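Good morning,

Attaching, inline, the backbone tokens for the sequence recovery test we're adding to the shared suite. The designed sequence is right after.
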């Protein structure tokens, strides 16, 4: 009888371990899904921008940027950019980007990539200052906002501007946060030393 109880107890322990392993595998799957879901949303947002970028011919402003970038040298492209009302960064980017091709989609790719990267930067920032679900909702909103998709699907400076502004604001927030944290920790050490 004692051996029978030991066998039942051993069987119960192995069943309990199997149930715990199943629960852990379920949690592991959920954590992987939580990690991959923002990437899937980002890729879907990239797809939406690519579809929009492929749909239309260049409008007159986009054609002006392309013609300004289509100079024989980078100096001439820069001089042509100075005649435009917009800053010359996009013209210089397009000058070098033309080596990949000159179709409408290829010319719009810097803006498409910058607009998509801006969505990801906002997600990372929101995840840092709020929680994961708020960051995910922000990523959903920015990835599929029609105005942002339209801006990202044009040969214009606006997507690059958004990307650089978000990059700069993230760096300044990071610097200020680390600076404030360092100052607070130094002050608390001085207070303890007294």
């Amino acid at each position: 009888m004692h051996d029978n109880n030991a066998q039942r107890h051993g069987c119960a322990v192995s069943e309990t371990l199997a149930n715990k392993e199943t629960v852990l595998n379920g949690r592991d799957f959920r954590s992987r899904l939580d990690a991959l879901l923002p990437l899937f949303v980002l890729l879907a947002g990239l797809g939406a921008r690519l579809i929009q970028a492929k749909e239309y011919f260049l409008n007159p402003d986009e054609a002006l940027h392309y013609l300004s970038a289509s100079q024989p040298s980078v100096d001439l492209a820069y001089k042509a950019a100075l005649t435009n009302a917009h800053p010359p960064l996009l013209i210089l980017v397009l000058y070098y980007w033309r080596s990949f091709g000159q179709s409408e989609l290829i010319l719009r790719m810097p803006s498409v990539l910058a607009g998509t990267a801006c969505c990801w930067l906002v997600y990372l920032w929101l995840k840092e200052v709020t929680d994961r679900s708020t960051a995910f909702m922000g990523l959903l909103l920015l990835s599929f906002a029609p105005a942002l998709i339209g801006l990202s699907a044009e040969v214009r400076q606006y997507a690059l501007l958004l990307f650089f502004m978000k990059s700069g604001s993230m760096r300044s927030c990071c610097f200020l946060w680390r600076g404030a944290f360092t100052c607070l920790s130094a002050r608390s050490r001085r207070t303890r030393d007294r």
